Recover the amino acids of this structure.
């Protein structure tokens, strides 16, 4: 990761640029590096904040989508950020939805890409399976349209995580919390502009999930990214950034 992680007041995060604030939220197995191309593209015109979500640090009994949304809200207060654009991938999108539903006055716009909150098929329902490197490699590659996107570095990181018992327990707790915390009844109350940027070949949160979000959110747009799986900002960064840039120009009146 070429951006330095800042540690301040118990928070770990990346910060780059100045201007209107974009807050990038990573997924359950996501790394800050997932957002590298997004930070590169937008840091010259916006302030970009990328908090590390404390999935492995929060008390296990309180760990869940709600507690992570509260954590991000506290982080934004600490950074004195009152009006932000939340951009979330996978679990990060779900956290963005929960935070927006609770504090819509603090969120200017929301961007969801491969977001949980309605449905997700996490690792075919059989993850995590420990031990087998080949299995982890195959399942990590399955997250993407192009298996080559699952680099050895990425597979190594996932393999290490699923073979560390304390982390596996937390991943399972988070996954169960995400499934329990279905947002379908809350979406009609989210009236700020929402952009859905979705991989057409997403197997984790398939295209019909994006269509359901689009139907249930009152002020949403839906953009498809072809030849793309669960993480468009990693697999098709140029197209993702183009859609995001167009949306920001429209909703922030730049």
């Amino acid at each position: 990761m070429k951006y330095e992680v800042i540690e301040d007041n118990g928070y770990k995060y990346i910060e780059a640029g100045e201007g209107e604030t974009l807050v990038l939220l990573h997924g359950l197995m996501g790394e800050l590096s997932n957002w590298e191309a997004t930070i590169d593209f937008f840091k010259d015109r916006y302030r970009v904040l990328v908090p590390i979500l404390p999935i492995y640090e929060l008390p296990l009994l309180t760990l869940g989508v709600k507690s992570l949304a509260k954590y991000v809200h506290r982080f934004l207060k600490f950074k004195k950020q009152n009006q932000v654009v939340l951009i979330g991938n996978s679990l990060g999108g779900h956290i963005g939805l929960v935070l927006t539903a609770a504090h819509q006055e603090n969120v200017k716009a929301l961007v969801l890409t491969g977001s949980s909150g309605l449905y997700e098929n996490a690792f075919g329902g059989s993850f995590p399976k420990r031990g087998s490197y080949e299995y982890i490699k195959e399942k990590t590659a399955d997250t993407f349209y192009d298996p080559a996107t699952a680099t050895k570095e990425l597979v190594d990181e996932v393999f290490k995580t699923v073979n560390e018992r304390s982390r596996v327990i937390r991943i399972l707790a988070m996954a169960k919390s995400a499934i329990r915390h279905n947002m379908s009844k809350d979406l009609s109350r989210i009236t700020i502009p929402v952009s859905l940027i979705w991989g057409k070949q997403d197997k984790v949160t398939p295209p019909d999930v994006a269509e359901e979000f689009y139907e249930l959110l009152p002020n949403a747009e839906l953009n498809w990214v072809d030849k793309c799986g669960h993480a468009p900002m990693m697999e098709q960064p140029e197209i993702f950034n183009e859609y995001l840039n167009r949306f920001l120009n429209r909703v922030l009146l730049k």
The first strand starts at residue 6 and ends at 8. The chain has a mean pLDDT of 92. DSSP finds nine helices and eight strands in the chain.
